Structure formats: structure tokens, C-alpha cells
Amino acid sequence: MNIKSLLLGSAAALAAVSGAQAADAIVAAEPEPLEYVRVCDAFGTGYFYIPGTETCLKIGGYVRVQVDGRSDFDLNGQSGGYRTNTRGQIAVEAKSDTEYGTLASKITLRANTNTSNGYSITIPAGTPGAGTYSGSQANNDFYLEETYLQLGGLRVGYFYNYFDNGLPGETVLSDGGPWSNGGLGGDTLNNSVRYTYDAGSFSLYGQVDAFNSQAGFKTDDAGTDDQIGVNGVVTGKFGGVTLDFFAGYDFDSEEAAFASTLTAAIGPGSLGVFAAYATGANRYFDAAEWTIGAEYAIKLNDKFSIAPGAQYWDNVAFDGNDLDGGDAWRVGVTADYKITTNLAAKATINYTDVDNGVASDDRWDGFLRLQRSF
């Protein structure tokens, strides 16, 4: 055997061994691609896609610290003083497109450190649904605020009605008066069904409300078989002017309420006018037979604005469902200051004078608030 034959044989042997090892080689698997959170801009700012789905999610809320103050008010036995409260709120919204329109839902959780933030509604004896109803908000645990689901124009759940909208300042009160008249009012958040038709510059909705959503079963024996209201709103937008008209009917009291709000961009600010009329005390409005109020929110610069306002109520005396006699008026001013992005301060002071037809009194009230939103 010569050297040439030996080298060729060795090369063939090495090739055979290498081929056998190659057949048994382990190939590393490709790593799974990471799915990063994607921004969803189809429904506005703040939304992102839930990984692996086409549902867009938005998480927001605020932390608020507030000090309230008031003077004595003999008409309802309220003593003057101050109170402090810290509130936390978290809102989660989810939206996605479907063949029936946008599918949306909202969950709002809120808690207060001040345990007097609940409510109590008393319906006088002899009035349909007589009794006292209290909400569960009077504690410092988290509780449900506005929470609902919506498909296209149909909304079902727990949400506010028209009388919680209000104007920019803190003087004009759309959901009642700054005194206790023993009536039915303040019922602005209930389990409801609403359908909205929105054509851009023109919209309208119809709504059915189940009043006192926390009061348990409504039965004939308890005298709470109805506790249903129906209402509707028509809204028109004309350039810088927005005008709406509300009409609602309370089947328990068999009374109706009507209201309208006008807002218009004028000069350096926005003018807001609110008016309401009730045929008698009802769940939608019972502060007076009628009221009218106005506020003008003046933007002094990019950070600071003030909103002076005034309101008048006529026939504030409460007798059964009748509103007859007395009047009240209120003036005040609200200041808003943007400290930095998502951090703002608000302060208000108001003076109210009430004559209920039997006695009269006046009071001062206001608050100082610091709020961080996200």
C-alpha cells in the first residue's frame, strides 16, 4: 500500500463518520416571537390591544383630596364646619368592532375615606313607594359607580341620567337644590336601558330607569311595584353652540320633568344656561317647580380659568308631590388651575338664600380640591 492509497482511504473513513454524525445532529428550535402591546387608536387615545385579541382596553382614573366647608343652615338642621375626604377611582373600558357596531363596556370602582359619602332618599308617607332607601356608598370600601355594556346605540347597565351632567362650575345645580326638602330628588344613578341615535350634529336617545337600584325587590306588598321612569333627550350642535331638551316621566309620582341646557363659546370662555320645570316633585327633579341658572367659564390663560354663576328657584316648598311657595337663589364662583399635566386644583365658594314659605335662612359653602388624573 502506498501513501496515496492510505490518504484516500482515511478521507473516505472520515467522510462516512461525519455523515453519520450529521444524521443524528439536534437542531435548536426557533424562539417564539414576543407579542408586544400594540397601541389601539381606533377609539381615541389611551387604548391598547389586549395581547392575542382584537379588543382595545383603556385604564384610567383619579386620586382626589378635598376639604369641604359650610356655615350653619337652620332650615334643615345642618351645623357648620368642615370635613376632609380622599377618593380613589379606577375606570376600565373595553371596546371592539362587531358586525352590529362597537361593542363597549365600562367598569368604574370608587372608594372614599369619608364614610358620609353615601345617600339616603326618604319618600313621605302617603306618597307612592313611601319609605327610606339608602345606597351602599357610605363606607370606605370600593363600590360600583357607572358600569354598563353597550352594543352600537344600545346601552344597558348602571349609569347616570341627564340631571348629573351639570355646567362647568360648581354653582349651578342641575340635580336639585342646596337644601334638604324631604323630597325624592338626587336619584341620578340607576339601572337603566338607553338607545341613542347619533347623526353627528343631531342626536337623540330614549331611556327607561329602574329607580332605587339598591333597594332590593320591588313588590306590591312593599308599595314599590313601579319605581320606573322614562325619559328622552334631543341634542343639536350648531358650530360653537350646543342645545338639548330633556323630558322625563316618573310613574310612581305620576309627575313629569322638563329641562334644557345651552352652551355656547363666547369671547374668552363658554356660557352655560340651565333651566328645568317640574309638574310636581318626582325622581328626576324636585328642588322647585322651576329653576334657571347660568355660568360663564372664562379661560384666563392655558392654566387658569374662573366660572362665576348664579341660579334662581321658584316654589321650593314641598307638600306631598306639590311644589308651591317660597323661593331660593344662589351665587358663587369656581376657580380651576392646571398645576401640571394631569394634576389640577379646584376651589369654589357659594352663597345661598332660601325662603321656604314658612322660614328663611342663608348659608355659605365651598371646597378646595386637588386631583391627579390618569
UniProtKB/TrEMBL annotation:
**Record's keyword terms, sorted:** Cell outer membrane, Ion transport, Membrane, Porin, Signal, Transmembrane, Transmembrane beta strand, Transport
Q: A single Pfam family, by name?
A: Porin_2
Q: How does it sit in the membrane?
A: Multi-pass membrane protein
Q: What is its main location?
A: membrane
Q: Where in the cell is it found?
A: Cell outer membrane
InterPro entries (alphabetical)? Porin_alphabac
Which molecular function GO terms apply here? Answer: porin activity
GO cellular component term of the entry, any: pore complex
Q: Does the keyword Membrane apply?
A: yes
What top-level branch of life does the organism fall under? Bacteria
Keyword Signal in the entry? The reply is: yes
Sequence similarity: Belongs to the alphaproteobacteria porin family.
Domain topic, free-text comment = Consists of 16-stranded beta-barrel sheets, with large surface-exposed loops, that form a transmembrane pore at the center of each barrel. The pore is partially ocluded by a peptide loop that folds into the pore lumen.
Q: What does this protein do?
A: Forms passive diffusion pores that allow small molecular weight hydrophilic materials across the outer membrane.
Protein name listed in UniProt: Porin
Organism of derivation? Aliirhizobium smilacinae
- List the lineage, top down: Bacteria, Pseudomonadati, Pseudomonadota, Alphaproteobacteria, Hyphomicrobiales
